[in-house]
Design goal:
single chain; about 400 residues; mainly alpha; Growth Hormone, Chain: A; 2 domains; globular; MFS; MFS_dom; cell membrane; transmembrane helix
């Protein structure tokens, strides 16, 4: 696949060793690991932060909500505002912002300052993701793009499996301020790694509102956006309440929920790399399979998840399937818009983050006003609709 995004003048120079290319991919993966850890770490520290700053746990939850919403808007806005700035410089600046903002969180004298620091975290997350999510086409040979994309998104799974639990443990043992200080230190390490191995990445084209809107006229991009909204919205509507589902439906003791969620994260990492390998052969079939697996796994909880064994098996299947969703959908966007990867990725990151927040919000309303089972039906129905949308693109040669 030869595209404007893979022009030799914009990618790594031919004489640069392949090892250096993959070191750059690994550094970006470290960045994604940090982003997800920074976004989700407050989930495990809400009680301690709320107690220290004299706010309720519900109010402290703004530490998660605010950066997610800000990231959704920052994803398209940051590339537009920086114009033709070298993407290497942009990524370095955003990682520097992440370093400073997490240090500001750790030192916040009150909750208002803390929320302000989380706004900066959201800007860094959205801007970095918008560029990094489609960066594989700039760093490796065309045949290696799916594998490199899987490595970059491997940072997401690693954050859920290792980053957030370890950060929470550090916060429990030494205090939440130390946890965020450690996150700032990790951001600095990531900044140094990116500075050392990331090549110059001249902007292939300036991102303008017109270019973003043009992507929505691309049938492949449009279906990718629809599928992303449905899959991510449905997943988070249901997964946000997976702990009570395991306890009430499967009869699993609360003590074992944590280890099971760890298993979900490990399964997600495996699913990420399995999907990466499959996507190098068949994009459409791989993404369709992921959607169908999610459409089956969530509702099946209501039938086969009524026992401990059934609940555990379905949780692992769910983790395997959703683990491949990010790399699958991002690869879909790359294939659909090869000459405007950054613009398409910006839209994708924006709707991805919005869908996370909206899914959790709607899921909460359903659990409070209807039933816990309702979110599992909703998650399955959304995945099924996504599968139907993806199926309609079966004749798109670029996605085969």
């Amino acid at each position: 696949m030869t595209t404007a995004e893979q022009n030799p003048a914009q990618a790594l120079e031919p004489e640069v060793p392949e090892r250096s290319r993959w070191m750059a991919v690994s550094a970006v993966a470290l960045g994604t690991f940090l982003l997800v850890t920074a976004e989700q770490l407050p989930i495990g520290l809400l009680t301690s932060v709320g107690s220290a700053l004299s706010v309720s746990e519900g109010t402290a939850g703004l530490m998660v909500t605010v950066p997610s919403i800000v990231a959704a808007f920052a994803a398209p806005l940051v590339p537009m505002l920086v114009g033709a700035m070298d993407r290497r410089i942009l990524l370095l600046l955003l990682m520097a912002l992440m370093t400073i903002s997490n240090l500001a969180t750790a030192m916040a004298p009150n909750f208002a300052v803390l929320v302000g620091s989380r706004v900066l975290v959201g800007i860094a997350i959205g801007g970095f993701w918008a560029v990094a999510s489609g960066l594989a086409v700039r760093l490796v040979a065309p045949a290696d793009v799916p594998r490199a994309t899987a490595v970059i998104f491997g940072g997401v799974g690693a954050a859920n499996v290792f980053g957030v639990p370890i950060g929470t443990l550090v916060g429990d043992l030494t205090g939440w301020r130390v946890a965020f200080s450690s996150l700032s230190a990790l951001a600095l390490v990531t900044l140094i790694a990116l500075l050392a191995v990331l090549p110059g990445l001249a902007a292939s084209q300036a991102i303008r509102p017109k270019l973003l809107m043009e992507q929505l006229r691309n049938p492949g991009v449009r279906i990718g956006i629809i599928a992303t909204v449905l899959i991510v919205f449905g997943h988070f509507a249901a997964y946000t309440f997976v702990s009570p589902a395991l306890q009430r439906l499967s009869g699993i003791d609360e003590r074992y929920v944590g280890p099971l969620l760890f298993g979900f994260g490990v399964a997600g990492m495996i699913g990420n790399f399995v999907a990466g390998a499959a996507l190098s052969r068949r994009v459409h079939r791989s993404v369709l399979t992921i959607s169908i697996a999610l459409a089956v796994a969530m509702p099946l909880f209501l039938l086969l998840g009524r026992t401990v064994v059934g609940g555990v098996v379905l949780l692992i299947v769910w983790g395997l399937a959703y683990g491949g969703a990010s790399v699958g959908l991002q690869t879909w966007m790359i294939k659909s818009a090869p000459k405007a990867v950054e613009a398409a990725s910006s839209l994708w990151v924006a709707v991805f983050n919005l869908s996370i927040g909206l899914g959790a919000l709607v899921g909460g309303v359903i659990v409070d006003t209807l039933t816990l089972q309702g979110v599992l039906w909703l998650g399955g129905a959304c995945a099924l609709l996504a599968a139907l949308a993806i199926w309609t693109a079966r004749t798109n040669d670029a996605l085969r």
